[in-house]
Amino acid sequence: MNEAILLSEQRDEVVLITLNRPEAMNACDFALLHALAAKINAIRFDTSVRVIIITGAGDRAFCSGADLKERATLSPIQVKEYIFTIRNLFTAIEQLNKPVIAAVNGVALGGGTELALASDIRFASETATMGLTETRLAIIPGAGGTQRLPRLIGKGKAKELIFTGRRIGATEAFGIGLVNKVCAPDALIDTCRAMAAEICETGPVAIEQAKYAINHGMETDLYTGLAIESNAYWVCIPTEDRLEGLAAFREKRKPVYKGR
Q: Which CATH fold would you assign to the domain 6-200?
């Protein structure tokens, strides 16, 4: 992994990942995609990590999407490879067995908005700008935007934003449910860390199973979703953490969960 283009800092059980190409508005070239994929793959099996926060370096951009300078040098088959790579990466982030918080600290266009959509929770700076702008380049969102955006904000509003390629500010993004919260720029990361700390107080197995049930249940009918929830619940029953939670409640103390 190229540490220069991807920074990672672990504090307690929370990892802060920073896309570090501020000179390119943190645009995703092949190198950054491969570095982020390697980090996500490593975190998946790291039991010391409970929550991931993803942000961009500097105060201008979260991620401005694909690196169009690199894109101009790619052959059609290489463009297909790029789309395959970024789509699979964002799906891996969405399906990661730990919560992912996107700290949208500035411009998030195209793939930048798609990266936020693949995250579980989205907090935005007051200065953030978001949008799926691909149609203005005569292409369409290719890293999940046509699928995740309508599932999050509704089909009609998603079509409006994708068909026009319009950029929206943080306040409008909050109003349509694209982001969970809007923060002052200098409070964004601390707000994300506070949310991560709350999550870290819960049971690790329970969080993994809750995310699984929500993600997969949303893609099917209610009764199948309830069956998915039931099976996810059964996974929690034989865990030491469940017994610890009951004991801590009985003894009026904070539980100490170990993820087993």
A: 2-enoyl-CoA Hydratase; Chain A, domain 1 (3.90.226)
